[in-house]
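Researcher: Re-running this chain for the archive, since the previous output was lost when a drive failed. Same request as before.
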Amino acid sequence: MKHKVSYLPKAGSAFVFLLLFFTTTQLMAQDKKAYLSAKDSEPSKFGWMQGFPPPADKVLHTWDGSFFEFPAIRWSVVHMRQMLPTVNVSRGLDKPSALVYDLDQEIDSIKFTPWHEQKPMTWEASLWKNYTDGMIILHKGEVVYERYFSALTEDDVHAVMSLTKSFNGTLASILVAEGKLDDTKLVPYYVPELKNSAYGDATVRQVMDMTTALKYSEDYADPKADIWDFSQAGNPLPKPKDYKGPVGYYEYLETVKKQGKHGEAFGYKTVNADALGWIISKAIGKSVNELLAERIWSKAGMEQDAYYQVDSKGIAFTGGGFNAGLRDLARFGELLRNDGNWNGVQLFPKEAVQDIKKGGSKEAFAKSGHPALKGWSYRNMWWITENKDGAYAARGVHGQTIYIDPAAKMVLVRLASHPVAANSANDAYSLPAYQAVADYLMNKHE
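Model: Regenerated structure tokens:
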């Protein structure tokens, strides 16, 4: 079944559909529509974009939002470069680092009980329930589980949505640990252009932890919400002739106004991630995509280049435009699990990861409206579960995650195309499943 969002702005608004991918919202969290199942919505059943040229009724577009409608989203998440302009993140010219495989066939049959339910579910059943496109699990650095579904294959890259923010947070944490970025400075110290915006009296740390107080709404149910203006500014396609607003993400950031007091509450807003991207670029004199390639992607044995979507000025959308391969995301997670050490080489200070793992203010997080994530915190654009294992995660809409469990020595990456954007639609079937696998791996190797 298709799901159209009828209230989206029409003129020149192609990019608003893309933004829906990349920000965790509650737009469709309560949507009770009956969607096709994961198996019935496999892209191979629909023939989108096949042929030379494809038939007119099989063509997906950005300008009309058809590429984003479910189930077309299941094809689009691995073909974003065909739809929008991008900038590369190079893996370099070295050979990929080999992954050691010790696949465990028992994982599929692990059982757990979803939140608020009585009947147990198997791990494999949860993958279908959550419209999984790819799943990989590393234990002590070895691959114990790897599967691909839907349109994703082992040589594809996949849109990671708001996982992108955690790459920003990691880079910023590295720069802070190296003394190249001072998180106590006010934002205009690095980005003078933001002195008259809400960020004028916010610290870099408040941006990194999303405790800025902004007059900015990402309520997609409201056609007048600020997210639509941000989306219009970032739209890489030509603006309408009568358009007089900001052009590009950075120009939009200059217009954001303050509401409240910085530092008091966690407020998950995508503009913070793009503000941090600007801060990083100004502090180091390089674009985020260049820095990510230089410090991580070309150093950690990645198999494939990654890429970011960009605005009309070529600026990477660091709030949610990253695309990468499943195994490479697992390598990134393993790099963090090992405190920045990759195969015996310290790529960046361990303090950068330790600062992530220590978590943020639970009090600030509690004010953010995430009742299902009770006791969590947020630090350096990572979600800190504060559970018994010290697990922390990068999270993106439609089911994307990098989940790192230090106690279990486990790294789990899921790529997905769930028809409902908000993670509240799949957390009940995901978070307890991750814990069940972590417990299994720990007990198996005691």
